[in-house]
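Reopening this ticket.

The earlier resolution said the output was attached, but the attachment link was broken on my side. Pasting everything inline this time so it's all in one place.
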Amino acid sequence: MTDPATETIDKWEACKLVEKAAGSLGIRPRALTVLKAVVSFHEGNSIDKNSVVWAPNKKLLGRCNGISAPTLVIRPH
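Inline output:
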């Protein structure tokens, strides 16, 4: 049995899995675009449950395929 604390997954495979389940999870296409942009800042190919990415907003916008800055603002639901 593997230890969940040390399990890793390829970051792009993780994005594909999220994209595949997006409809069932209620994830919108723009959110997927932002996810991929954020993941692109993570160094290396593998991520785990403790992975953290710090992406400057200006650079993040450049990788979001034309999404506007206000779209990136987190709004309370």
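Reporter confirms the inline version is readable. The chain has a mean pLDDT of 87. The first helix runs from residue 11 to 25.
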